[in-house]
Amino acid sequence: MLLRTATIAAIAAVFATQIPALIDRAGPPSQVPATVEDAPPVQNAAYTPGTAVLEADGRGHFEAAFRINGKPVEGLVDTGASLVAINETTARRLGFGANSLDFRYNVNTANGPTEAAHIKLSRMEIGGVRVQNIDAFVLRDRGLSGTLVGMSFLKKLKSFQVEGGKLKLTQ
């Protein structure tokens, strides 16, 4: 039980350190799009089979259009995040109903304390890369505004490397 609590605390600490980057990325409230349709387009990854290459944005972040369980989701690649993290709204769009989410983990974010539920994603895809059976956390919407693509996705790849402002993912 102590190991489980320590693991959850470590995951919460990682989330707490990564949420400020999401808030920075969002900018002041007046700059945040009112709807998904108003949002600027996220780059699609260049790819060949088994690879994807993402270009850094002006702030050095790697944000791209992923497919999670077959549905498009914009995600920010974050090597500092232990797990893929999505918010409740995205989880519902991916088919995780409110009754199937067990928000039993307490985590602290830059937006304050919130609850998280552990889930398994069937598959995540970007470009020519496809990964299956990925651990993820669903956080309450107030705790996470976007999607973080963390190490539970990246560690299933053969490699990922940043060079010259590009992130190359290899399966």
Automatic annotation (TrEMBL):
Q: Is rRNA-binding among the key words of this record?
A: no
Q: Name one GO biological process term.
A: proteolysis
Q: What class of enzyme is it?
A: hydrolase
Q: InterPro entries recorded for this chain? A: Aspartic_peptidase_AS, Clan_AA_Asp_peptidase_C, Peptidase_aspartic_dom_sf, Retropepsin-like_bacterial
Q: Name one Pfam family in it.
A: gag-asp_proteas
GO molecular-function terms, A-Z:
peptidase activity
Is DNA-binding one of the keywords UniProt gives this record? no
Q: Which domain of life is it from?
A: Bacteria
Q: What is this protein called?
A: TIGR02281 family clan AA aspartic protease
Record keywords: Hydrolase, Protease
State the coiled-coil residue ranges. Answer: none
Q: What is its EC number?
A: 3.4.23.-
Gene3D superfamilies, A to Z: Acid Proteases (2.40.70.10)
Per the UniProt record, the source organism is Neorhizobium turbinariae
